[in-house]
Design a protein that fits this description.
mainly alpha, elongated, single chain, 73% helix
Length: 66
């Protein structure tokens, strides 16, 4: 999922630059918003993947209890 989001980020950023060069200002803006959304989705996917590697609940230490 993270790779897909990064790909979409890259493609929409390139399309945004193309739109800017050709003075399609509204389209360039919308594509830059899409790129930012894809960047955020990639970051969220990265965090989810990292948290999946953690144990579900930390071990609870009980001192003095037997």
């Amino acid at each position: 999922m993270q790779r897909t989001a990064r790909y979409i980020e890259e493609m929409t950023e390139q399309l945004s630059e193309l739109a800017k060069r050709n003075e399609f200002h509204d389209l360039a803006y919308l594509l830059s918003v899409a790129s930012a959304e894809a960047r955020e989705a990639a970051e969220q996917a990265k965090v989810r993947a990292a948290s999946a590697d953690l144990p579900e609940s930390p071990a609870v230490l009980s001192f003095g209890a037997q």
